[in-house]
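Schema walk-through. Below, the input block comes first and the output block second. Nothing else is stored per chain. Lengths vary across the set, and this one has 215 residues.
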Amino acid sequence: MKRVATRYLAPVILGLFAVAALSGCGGDPPQADLDAAKASIDGARAAGAEKYASSELSAAQSAFEDAKAAFAGEADKMFKDWAAVAPKLSDAKSKGDRATSAAQQAKGRAKSSAEAAIAAASASVQGARAGLDAAPAGKGTEGDVEQLRASLDSADADLSAAQSSVSREDFEGAMTKANGAKGKADAVVTGVATATTRYHELVEANTPWYMRNSM
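--- output ---
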C-alpha cells in the first residue's frame, strides 16, 4: 500500500518542485525594457545631451549602469526576481528621456540666440553700408572710405559664415561670427562719422575765408 502511494505521490511532488522552480525564475527577463533604457540613453546623446544637458545625461547614464548591473546580477541567480529590476530600468529610461528633452530645449534656445545675433548683425551691416554710401568722398578721404568698405565686406563674410554655422548646429560659432560682423559694422559707423568730419574740415581749410559762410 505504501509503495502504491509513493508511486502516485512522486509525480505530484516533482510537479510541485517544477512549479516552485518556475516561480523562482520570476518569468521572462525584461530584455525589452533594458533595450528601451539603452535606446533612451543613445537618443539623448544623439540629441546633443553631451553638450547641452551634460548633468542630465550623466544622471541617466549612472541610472542605466545601475539597472544593467542589477539585470545581470538577477540573471545569474537560480531564483530570479525581475520585479526588483523593473523600477531601475524604468528610472534609467525616464532619466534618458529627460536628458533628451533638456538637450532639445537648450539647443533650441542656443539656436534662437544665434539667429537673433545674426539678425542684429545684419541690420547693423545694412545700416553701416547705407551710411557709407551716403558719406562724402574726396578731399583726402577716398582711402578712408575704401578701407571702411573693405571692413563691411569682411562683415558680410562673417554673416555668411554665421549662417553656415547655424545650419551645422554650431550655434556658439554662429554667435562668434555674428558678433564679429556687428562689431565691424559698428566700427564702420564710427569710421564714417570720423571721415565725414575730416572731409568737412578739409573742405573748410581749402575754402577762402570769405566763402565759408556760404557753405
